[in-house]
Amino acid sequence: MHLYDSNIPSGNAYKVQLLLSHLGIEYKTTVLDIMAKPSETRTPEFLSINPSGRIPVLVLDDGTALAESNAIIYYLAEDTKFLPDTKLGRTQVLQWLFFEQNLHEPYIAVWKYNTYWGGFANGTESQNARMKQRGQDALQAMERHLEGKKFFVGDAYSIADIALFAYTTSAEAIGFEVGPNIKAWLERVEGQEGWVKIKKDPTGKCPL
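-> C-alpha cells emitted (208 positions)
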C-alpha cells in the first residue's frame, strides 16, 4: 500500500496512519507539500490519482486509489474488529463518520490550520466566531453522547473513534472547551494497542 500524505500534520491522513498501525500493515508514504504555491496536490501526476487534489490517498497493491479519509478507514476496517459486524453497528459507525466530516472537521480542523499555519485573515471576525462556535457545538454533542459510554459505538473501539480522535485530540490546545467525558475517551483511545501519535510538524509551528 502507498499513502499520500501532506508535509504538515494532517488529521485526515493521521486517521489512516493510526488504523494501519493498529492493523500492523506496512505501507510506503509520499509526502506532498501542500503549502507550496501551487500545492503539490495540484500537479497533473497527483490529480490523475485523485481528481479532487486532496490528501490523503491510499493506493492499494492492485493500483486502486482510494480518497477521502473516512472512506479509506471504512475500507481498511472491513472484516476487522474496528468495524461492527451488525448492520445497525455499521450504520452507527457511518453516522459518526458523517458527523465528523460535516459538523466537526470543517470547523475544528480548519481552526487548527488557521491557528498554526494559515492565520485568520481570510475570515471576518463574525465568520471566525461562527466557525469557533460550530466546532464547540460538535464537541458538546460528543460530550453528551459519551455520557456513560466508553466509545462512540457499542462497547468497542472502532473507526468511529479513530475518525473523531484525529482532530479532537488537539481541540483543547487550540482554544476549544473539552469536557470530562471527552478527556476520558481520549485517554482510552491513546491506551489502545498499536496507538501512535500524529507526526511532528516539520515547520515547527505546531507544537502538538
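The first helix runs from residue 11 to 23.
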